[in-house]
Amino acid sequence: MIFAMARSLAEEFAQLSEAEREEWINAQPDWLLKEVARGEWWWLARPEQVPPEGDWLVHLVLAGRGFGKSRSGSEWLVQRILDHPYDRHGTPTEWLVIAETLSDARIICIDGPAGILRVLQRREINYRYVKAPKPMIVFVDSGAKIYCEGADNADVGRGYNAAGAWLDEICKWKQPRASWYEGIMPSLRADLMGDHPRVFVTTTPKPVDILREWVQRTDGTVSLVRGSTFDNASNLSEHVVKELRTRYEGTAIGRQELYGELLEALDGAMFSRLDMENSRLYEIPEPIRSTIVGVDPNLTGEEDEMGVVVLARGKSNHMYVIADRSSPKVGRDAARHCWHVLLEYGADVLLYESNLGKVWMKEVLSDTYYEMAKEGLFPMGTTPPMKAVDSKAGKKTRAEPVALRLEQGRLHMIGRHPELETQMAEFVPDSGGDSPDRMDALVHAARHFMKAETRASKTASPAEALQRLQDQHEARGYVPEDWMSRYGG
After folding, report:
1. Opening angle at CA 306, ends 304 and 310, nearest 5
2. What is the pTM of this model?
């Protein structure tokens, strides 16, 4: 469901003549005028800022900055708690506020100018605010609680018996899809009277997988609203609004950040999803010359992934992405995983990034190879088939020739590799985003194959070189009696 933009009751009231406004005021009870005076949400909210009726699970607000997303989330959550202070068993309900970091959840969603505390104070609700070890708000009259969390990993929300949640800026989270399916959604299990747990999601859209899935839902579980910065212009600084229009109007970033559009690619994105689709195959159409495993190491073992991508090169020098076997493993487990992938796909060599991986990769890969040889997985007495790749050049420089191969239709996805393709499509050089580990692993492998092509072209025989020289002269009409014998061919 998508709402058309409209004015709030306050904005409609402002359009009336002075006589009409006075007549309306005189007809209202004192309690209503008091709520108008203190700016209650039913009076100030634009229609698109209030979720619709229906049986939805997720209400998704995709809107530009300044739309009023935080105020919408705060007002919704407080009202939900007042409507459902207890579950069916009489137990006080618990609710979640989750942002990219715990600090964001506190500073923006709780303490901010459009945060939950402002709503509680305006509505004169009796509450207790506990700041440590994590922010928590207790509704004194009912005992209902709001817990704050940062989306540090996929387990966020695990262990709660939540009646609902406000998820803020989910596009900025480290693992948005995994956080939803592994942590948050299973926690929404409170047994409410006359309703079920619901989630309010407020975010400036970016092309992440969970948003694509929600936007494409047609089963009624997702309610969708889109909005722009300028829908809320009457509540924003006139100078800032003007500057935003000047700076971003007509750009892809502006469409995303101001108008809330979910774009498949941003300005400056190096790899095109359209190119991926146009060159996609479901089987390799030619004999394979070589297969390699590209590895971009996981350094921390916490947030990073180890990129592991299998790439093949055909007789025509077209390249084929066979598998994305990336993993969060580190150390010996990571090395065993890499060697198992090499065995699984019959790859010729394992490539790893040298300057990042040299801390542990070379030694651990070697030691693990010999360990697996003793287990009978590799021939005893053989040398580990691995090669360090130089990554001194910046990501943009390394990725450009690979992106060109994709555009030319000479790099093919065999089947679909959603996480890898998303990293490729979202890679904007010099944007300061997260390290695209899967994409880097692919780039390492592709560059290795491209260098092999260059080496092959430089090792042509003298006879082949003389033949090319003869052909060039014949094309110009000058034909000596015997080029090959004259030059010792």
Report:
1. 145
2. 0.56
Residue 469 has pLDDT above 60, yes or no: no
Q: Which amino acid is at 33?
A: L
Question: Count of CB atoms within 10 A of residue 28's CB?
Answer: 12
Which pLDDT band holds residue 291 (cuts at 50, 70, 90)? very high
H/E stretch holding 74 reads helix 69-83
* Angle CA 350–356–360, to nearest 5: 70
Take residue 354 and report the two structure tokens written for it.
């040298």
Q: Compute how many other C-beta atoms are within 10 angstroms of the C-beta atom of residue 353.
A: 22
Q: At what angle do helices 209-216 and 418-425 cross, to 10 degrees?
A: 110
Residue 369 pLDDT > 60: yes
Provide the residue type at 2 as one letter: I
- Report the relative pairing of strands 319-324 and 307-314 from DSSP bridges: antiparallel
**pLDDT at residue 171 tops 60:** yes
400: exposed, middle or buried (C-beta count within 10 Å: 0-12, 13-18, 19+)?
Answer: middle
Q: CA 489 to CA 478: how far, in whole Å?
A: 19
User: What stretches of 346-461 show up as alpha helix (H) in DSSP?
Assistant: 354-357, 361-374, 395-407, 418-425, 437-458
Would you say how long the chain is, in residues?
A: 489
Pick the more confident residue, 309 or 273.
309
Type and span of the H or E element at 72: helix 69-83
DSSP bridge partners of 139: 127
Q: Is the pLDDT score of 149 beyond 60?
A: yes
Statement: residue 160 has pLDDT above 70: yes
Location of structure tokens 């092509």 = 453
Assigned token pair, 253 = 């970033």
Which residues, including other chains, have CB under 8 Å from residue 411's CB and lie 6 or more apart? 279, 318, 319, 320, 321, 402, 405, 446
Mean pLDDT comparison of 30-34, 196-200, 451-455, highest-scoring range? 196-200
CA dist., res. 194 & res. 209, Å (int)? 32
Cβ atoms within 10 Å, residue 230: 17
Q: What angle do CA 347, 352, 356 make, to 5 degrees?
A: 170
152 pLDDT more than 80: yes
What is the arithmetic mean of pLDDT over 455-477? 52
Distance separating the N- and C-terminal Cα atoms of the chain: 76
Helices 418-425, 437-458: inter-axial angle, 10-degree rounding: 80
pLDDT over threshold 90, residue 146? yes
| pLDDT at position 260 over 80 | no
* 133 prior amide bond cis, ω within 30: yes
